[in-house]
Design a protein that fits this description.
Length: 168
């Protein structure tokens, strides 16, 4: 039997954009399985070449794993990683989502509102900062959440996380 191989979307870039590594693995393996090991190797090499550079890990929700976040915190690596919606995040962000919905109802144009909140998932040993982007448009609700250890306003962090060409 042939095992399917897929390119997993772990593609670190530097600024200006230059691909550093691309990971190819079996489709049956979690995308984030080797993230910690790859990050450790990349960070070691980058710190050897550029000891004072700030390193930031940006990933989608598939890379939001307690061990990856904890590794970044222990190794002075910034991160901003997507995190899936859940009932508690939806409740904690209700005011922000409501504000975007009210503004949309008044203007009938897409509205985005941002906020930060503290949140601790059951699998985390500590609270972490969550960036909330609440968006309402004619297509409906499009709320997104990201977990981060970076400083900055929610809008600034969100906008730079989705546009990898900007630097932090």
């Amino acid at each position: 039997m042939h095992e399917e191989i897929v390119e997993q979307f772990f593609r670190p870039y530097q600024s200006p954009p230059k691909l550093l590594v691309s990971y190819l693995g079996p489709a049956s393996v979690d995308d984030a399985k080797h993230t910690g090991a790859i990050l450790a190797l990349l960070v070691k090499r980058m710190r050897k070449a550029w000891p004072r550079v700030n390193i930031i890990f940006r990933g989608d929700g598939g890379y939001c794993r307690p061990r990856v976040l904890a590794w970044c915190e222990r190794n002075d690596v910034g991160y901003i990683v997507g995190i899936g919606k859940n009932i508690l995040l939806e409740a904690l962000s209700l005011d922000t989502r409501h504000r975007a919905a009210i503004q949309f109802a008044k203007t009938q144009t897409k509205q985005r509102c941002f906020a930060t909140l503290n949140y601790q998932a059951r699998s985390w040993k500590t609270e972490r900062k969550i960036v909330v982007k609440a968006e309402f448009s004619p297509l409906g609700d499009n709320t997104r959440y990201m977990v981060t250890n970076l400083k900055g306003s929610a809008k600034w962090l969100y906008d730079r996380s989705v546009n990898r060409l900007h630097t932090y």
